[in-house]
Amino acid sequence: MTKDQVTDRTKGHISMSDHLKIFVGYDSREDIAWQVCRHSVLRHSGPDIEIYPLKLPTLRELGLYTRGADNATTEFSITRFLTPYLGAHDGWTIFVDCDFLFTQDVRDVLKHASRDKAVYVVQHDYTPANAVKMDGKQQSVYPRKNWSSFILFNNAHPEVKALTPEIVNTAAPAFLHRFQWLSDDNLIGALPLEWNFLEGEYPRRDEVPAAIHYTNGGPWFENWKNVDYADLWTAERDMYSASANQ
User: Fold this and answer.
1) Which burial class, exposed, middle or buried, applies to 52 when counting CB atoms under 10 A from its CB (0-12, 13-18, 19+)?
2) What is the pLDDT of residues 141-188, one digit of tens each?
3) Cα radius of gyration rounded to whole Å, the chain
4) β-pair partners for 101
């Protein structure tokens, strides 16, 4: 361990050596989005990262998800909150929507984290630019929208440990997505915008964000092939396809 890493620990921060698990929201309509998201994470971070898809049928088979059917935009609307329970360790665990593309090492996000917070998110404050998203799904508007699309969980925090499958399966969606299961808003740490850059909601930047979120629809949908940074996603898809066919 380096001197800087030891110093970080004395300040309550974490180091690059802390164990990280990633769970990606999986939707059966967007398998290619999951595959490309995963490929981008591993290409920039290396094979030591643990990364898993959150598949709804599997979670139901395991008895971890028992809620009835709903009208949510994606199959992982609620299952994302099972992430720290599935992580089953006291390290840090990330949930991320499948419609993300990572352009740098995801472990760099840990530089912004401290153990005194329960979670870290990009704290968006915006009104969606489109009434319809992805494959014709109605856009919903609610407080703290898209905060939960990328969550860095501090699994050692007692209020994160208290987010059990029972709560996930019984609490109102708004209670979960607005982080009302935390006793104090000060437990929600803020990440820089580059870790959940909403394509189409913010002006395109000259400097490529660390994590591009195609929240309205990505190039894998016919009507969204010309969005900002579509070329980066397509290039990543081609790299994934080439590696999958080897």
Assistant:
1) middle
2) 667 889 999 999 999 999 999 999 999 999 999 999 999 999 999 999
3) 17
4) 212
Q: Tokens 């999951």 — which residue?
A: 34
Helix (H) / strand (E) element for 245: namely none
Q: Tell me the Ramachandran region of residue 143: left when phi exceeds 0, alpha when psi lies from -120 to 50, beta otherwise.
A: beta
10 Å Cβ neighbour count for 217? 22
Here the tokens at position 141 are: 């508007």
Q: Say how far apart CA 43 and CA 35 lie, in whole Å.
A: 12
pLDDT digits (tens, 9 = 90+) for 40-92: 999 999 778 999 999 999 999 999 999 998 878 889 999 999 999 999 999 99
Pair of tokens at residue 166: 């029972």
- Between the alpha carbon of residue 176 and those of residues 15, 66, 158, 192, the distances in Å are 29, 16, 16, 22
